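User: Sequence recovery, please. Input:
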């Protein structure tokens, strides 16, 4: 025991924390109503998602990502792996067509060679490392090897005897592949890509793994799993699997290769045989996962060392074959509306649908009605809000006053801009609330069941620190009974108020 503890202490600090962890998303495209690349990028930007993994190197998608700064992992699909792994020239052509043609405008930072090759395409295993080396050589020739790392995603099932983590090791039959692969990752400063699915671990454990342990829910100390060799306490499956990978690499004498989780998530819907694939469990898992990663908690073996993670996945994929759950891993539907509202208050600036309670933007009590009218004009004009529900005879026309109508317009803009900071101010006459202002048949944007649109706008609402005259001399949109009929008189009065 003493020797095991000493060995552990010598190895525990080998992987260093030199950058913060991040959350990314995977983009699958098996949708019957797949948004176009521009819409996908608009959603990513609106949700502050700065890291994306593609399962291919789709040209239209890479062009749409140009000049966004979003960091992208492109992939060599499994059906192209044999050709690239057997020909340096084929690999060079692939890099020229799918990488060099797009950088630096598109911020490609990684290339994933295949997916779960050892477990899904074992006949390609002998040429896997050659494929990585050929792709890396092409990057090296173009001086892109420092910017773009090359690796290959693995299923966590290649790790055997994964609990306790200190006893974990890779399937020995893959040693002829894993040893040179890890040597390549170490020599190029790359990372081990690992797909971690506590959902499947839980489903396959026949009740041995508690649901709370899989979902990151708090556990009493007596329920925590303890590694008897290291005395480390594990409070969730995710950390245990990641540490099992670290110990499996240690078993092969590799101590300085970081783990990046390329897939993790939880399905929001399943068939009769999958009773725990529910909206609540998916919400709980992904919310807790995001918080856990962004807090830079690390793992018990490597506390404070980031475990950057890509959530599987951005959209529900209704065309995926298999069980109901296979189609329901997405955070969003194809129209850009969230499948569920993540519980992430205070967790960080990723995913704008990250509030425990729904929030709305409303007119501030006591606000000057002339300033409200000016802000209403801006929202329904340059702000490009759809104010048609405020027209006479429509669902939100009543009550017919500037307070009610500006509240609708303010909130519509706020929701349209994905609740971005500064989009609920309007020269100080608006305020955020958790009370849903919907009434009768007037359903406000952002309410449960309301229709939403993908954000693709760069206009900003007039804020309290704006130096321009937005909200001032704008085309008049009279929805209430404010006593101004001349836009010229209105403009003069408003400018007097603004600059007093």
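Assistant: Recovered sequence (500 residues):
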């Amino acid at each position: 025991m003493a020797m095991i503890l000493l060995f552990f202490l010598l190895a525990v600090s080998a992987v260093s924390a030199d950058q913060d962890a991040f959350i990314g998303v995977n983009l699958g495209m098996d949708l019957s109503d797949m948004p176009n690349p521009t819409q996908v990028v608009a959603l990513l930007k609106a949700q502050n998602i700065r890291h994306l993994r593609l399962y291919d190197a789709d040209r239209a998608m890479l062009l749409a990502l140009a000049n966004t700064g979003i960091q992208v992992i492109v992939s060599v699909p499994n059906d192209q792996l044999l050709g690239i792994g057997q020909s340096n020239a084929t690999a060079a052509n692939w890099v020229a067509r799918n990488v060099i043609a797009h950088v630096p405008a598109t911020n490609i930072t990684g290339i994933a060679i295949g997916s779960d090759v050892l477990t899904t395409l074992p006949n390609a295993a002998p040429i896997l490392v050659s494929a990585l080396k050929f792709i890396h050589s092409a990057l090296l020739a173009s001086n892109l090897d420092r910017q773009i790392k090359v690796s290959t995603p693995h299923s966590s099932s290649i790790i055997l005897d994964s609990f306790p983590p200190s006893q974990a090791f890779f399937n020995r039959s893959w040693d002829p592949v894993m040893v040179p692969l890890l040597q390549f990752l170490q020599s190029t400063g790359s990372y081990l890509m690992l797909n971690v699915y506590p959902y499947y671990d839980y489903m396959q454990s026949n009740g041995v793994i508690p649901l709370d342990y899989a979902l990151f829910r708090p556990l009493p100390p007596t329920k925590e799993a303890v590694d008897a060799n290291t005395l480390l306490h594990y409070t969730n499956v995710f950390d245990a699997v990641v540490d099992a990978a670290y110990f499996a690499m240690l078993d092969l004498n590799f101590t300085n290769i970081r783990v990046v989780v390329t897939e993790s998530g939880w399905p929001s819907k399943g068939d009769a045989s999958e009773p725990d694939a529910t909206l609540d469990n998916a919400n709980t898992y992904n919310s807790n996962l995001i918080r856990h990663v962004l807090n830079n908690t690390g793992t018990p073996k490597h506390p404070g060392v980031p475990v950057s993670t890509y959530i599987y996945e951005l959209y529900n994929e209704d065309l995926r074959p298999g069980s109901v759950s296979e189609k329901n891993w997405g955070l969003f539907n194809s129209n850009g509306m969230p499948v569920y509202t993540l519980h992430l208050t205070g967790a960080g600036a990723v995913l704008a649908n990250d509030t425990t309670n729904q929030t709305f933007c409303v007119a501030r009590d006591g606000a000057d009605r002339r300033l409200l009218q000016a802000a209403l004009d801006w929202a329904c004009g340059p702000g490009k809000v759809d104010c048609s529900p405020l027209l006479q005879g429509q669902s939100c026309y009543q009550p017919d006053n500037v307070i009610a109508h500006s509240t609708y317009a303010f909130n519509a803009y706020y929701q349209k801009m994905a609740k971005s900071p500064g989009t609920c101010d309007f020269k100080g006459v608006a305020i955020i609330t958790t009370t849903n202002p919907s009434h009768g048949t007037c359903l406000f944007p952002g309410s449960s069941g309301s229709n939403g649109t993908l954000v693709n706008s760069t206009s900003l609402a007039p804020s309290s620190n704006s130096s321009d005259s937005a909200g001032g001399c704008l085309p008049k949109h009279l929805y209430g009974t404010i006593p101004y009929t001349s836009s010229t008189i209105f403009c003069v009065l408003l400018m007097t108020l603004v600059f007093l």
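Residues 360-498 form one domain.
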